[in-house]
Amino acid sequence: MTVLIVIICYLMLLVSLGVASARFGKQTSNDFFVAGRSIGPFLLFMSLFGTTMTAFALVGSSGEAYERGIGVYGLMASASGIVHSAVFFLIGMKLWVFGKKYGYTTQIQYFRDRFESDAIGLVLFPVLVLLVLPYLLIGLLASGASISALTQGALPSLFAGGAVPPWLGSLVICFVVLTYIFFGGIRGAAWANAFQTCVFIILGMVAFYMIADALGGAKNATQMVLAHKPDLLARSAHISKFEFATYMLIPLSVGMFPHLFQHWLTAKSAKSFRLSIIAHPLFIMLVWVPCVLIGVWASSAMINGGLIVPEHSRANQVLTILIRNLLDSPILTGLLGAGILAAIMSSLDSQFLCLGTIFTNDIVLHYADENKISNQQKIWIARGFIIAIVAATYFISLFKPRQVFPLAIWCFTGFSSLFPLVFASIYWKKTTKIGAFASILTAIFMWLFFFLKADWGAKSSFVLPEILPFISASTESMQITIMPVLPIIICSTLALIIGSLLSSPPSEKTVAKFFK
Amino acid sequence: MKKKLIWGAVVLLAILHKDFWWWSDTTIVFDFLPVGLAYHAFISVCASILWALAVVYAWPEDLEAEAEGE
């Protein structure tokens, strides 16, 4: 019961913070969507970092490490440290310049201008919304699973097993996040992100120390893995070299995340990006190394000869089961649970908000007479769309629960597939509307093809003969594991180049607008 | 020249990220850290240092002026 009370207190604190942040805003749509472009280096870094560190980072990484070992860190974390900062440097700052110069609030506004095409917005809008959906789903699934695992036995008279059921846990999290972003908009999300990022980093370290201590020290915990599952301490048994290499394309997804784009636009100046670019890899390490180690330790951690995490446990619940079963203090367990929820909510808020922002700006205001819609009406339109999307995602989360990690990889694959589009739009003058359409459509159809072939995202990689049927499955040298992101990026890039070369170049006015 | 060196170092770091030489190695360093994980944590530290150098030596100074439409 104490665990539940601590979590409830944390959630109430968060709602209060969102309400408080609204007092510092100006209650205009510009403030609601881009915080008046006034966010400084520290808050920008905390927002960007908190937004990119999702359920995927804490719950997903420990669960995946529990099954696949230490290679999970190299797959995502160290690769992201290199690629994310490069994207902030090369894409984020340039888009911030265009956003400030031409008053953009969304990606679609930029692409419409850059490619002189209204229709590109109608193609990109459903694509971006549908790709954010699995990302939201990850957060809802992980929050429900975490709350359920942490509150076992807390309410025996109300629920089976005494645990808050996942459907109720997810629902409460939706309400909390909706409340603080409804009051504070992107400013509220930035404040909440900063607070929650501090919470999950500090509590993550505390969790790591406490778990290591409870297992007889980090040395002892690793020795148990060495004795029982040594394969998890290397990569050869669980990850192929080619898969490892192609994974590096996955973090390119940050270049097309609509919620990150919105945070970039809140920056006060280009200099505000400096801290994010430098500190991002280091902070990823601070979060991921403990999580991966905890996941690996969980595979072999024993007390009195029995496994603490029963074999074949759900990967999404490994971290919470370990915290619950190892730590004596319910207050500490509650605080660590709050840390996990903090990581999840610090992404959900920006994702919720970006969906409302693109619907309001790219569909409603773009096609309606903007002068007839007041500031308050704009904000309420955004809120209405957010509620609709959250309700739809929540409904989906009640069925077909997937593992967090593979689902996230499919979402990232979709956004990475659109990366050539944003990169070329900034650095290649000759990128045309036709090239852009060809690239987007190629990415969509190939992503759908692979997603369906993977049984609706049940797995995230293929062996080569599955993709190229003319290769004999019996040829051992061809049993290469490959991430779908590789063929999709190659084809969407080729489509962009060929489409652009075969069509008329953009007008001189557009080239002058976006290239010096 | 400095910018080229920085971007060259970024490419080199991306290549060094593929540490296939420790693929099957379960050696433990600092008593608790598998060598494959320790190496990649080191890669993260190097990335941070490299990006700090990029901010100092490859920073696009004209961005603020461009944003103001100058």
Question: What does this 3D model show about the protein?
Answer:
By secondary structure, chain A is mainly α. Chain A has one domain: Sodium/glucose cotransporter. Chain A has helices spanning 2-22, 29-34, 41-52, 55-68, 71-102, 107-114, 119-150, 166-214, 218-228, 241-246, 258-265, 273-298, 318-326, 330-367, 375-397, 404-417, 419-427, 433-453, 464-467, 485-501, 508-514; strands at 302-303, 306-307, 462-463, 481-482. Chain A has a two-stranded antiparallel sheet with strand order 1-2. In chain A, strand 1 (302-303) and strand 2 form a beta hairpin. Chain B is elongated. Chain B is mainly α and 70 residues long. The model of chain B has no long low-confidence stretch (mean pLDDT 91). In chain B, strand 1 and strand 2 (33-34) form a beta hairpin. In chain B, helix 1 (2-16) packs antiparallel against helix 2. A two-stranded antiparallel ribbon of chain B has the order 1-2. Chain B is built from three helices and two strands; from the N terminus they run αββαα. The A-B interface holds A 70-71, 73-74, 77-79, 81-82, 85-86, 89, 93-94, 96-97, 100-101, 212, 217-219, 221-222, 226, 230, 233-236, 241, 244-245, 248, 269-271, 274, 277-282, 284-285, 289, 292-293, 296, 516 and B 10, 13-14, 17-20, 22-26, 28, 31-34, 36-37, 40-41, 43-45, 47-48, 51-52, 54-55, 59-60, 63-64, 66-69.
Arithmetic mean of pLDDT of chain B:
91
- What summary fits the major beta sheet of chain B? 2 strands, antiparallel
Gap from first CA to last CA of chain A: 62 Å
Helix-strand pattern of chain B, N to C?
A: HEEHH
β-strand number of chain B: 2
The interface involving the most residues is between:
A-B, 51 and 38 residues
Taking pLDDT < 50 over at least 5 consecutive residues as the criterion, the unreliable ranges of chain A are: none
Rounded to an integer in angstroms, the radius of gyration calculated over CA atoms of chain A is 23 Å
> What best-fitting shape of chain B do the alpha-carbon axes yield?
elongated
Q: What's the gyration radius of chain B in Å?
A: 17 Å
Number of DSSP helical runs of chain B: 3
Name the beta content range of chain B.
Answer: 5-15%
Number of helices of chain A: 21
* Domain module tally of chain A: 1
Helix fraction of chain A, binned, reads: over 70%
Q: What's the CATH C level of chain A?
A: Mainly Alpha
The CATH homologous superfamily name of chain A equals: Sodium/glucose cotransporter
- H/E element sequence of chain A: HHHHHHHHHHHHEEHHHHHHEHEHH
Uncertain residue ranges of chain B: none
